[in-house]
Amino acid sequence: ATEYGLSATISGDPAAAAKVAPKLRAGLVTINSWSPDIGAPFGGYKQSGNGRENGRYGLTDFMEVKTITGLPGDVREGKPAEAGA
Fold this sequence. Notes:
The protein is an alpha+beta fold. Helix content is 13%, strand content 14%. It has a domain at 4-62. It is built from 2 helices and 4 strands.
């Protein structure tokens, strides 16, 4: 075991590798391969990496989430909600 978990590579029987891969504490696991899809999230576990790059998970560092609640209506135009809407 190691304190790092950026990536792991498994070679050999694909069926056996598919059983082992989810159990590994690594941010990227390749099976009989050398490179993930360019859109795949990349980052590590444990003392490797911080957060994720690429893919939809890579965008979360740049997001500001906002919740808006209230009655239905045309908020953009400042119109009140219709009765019974």
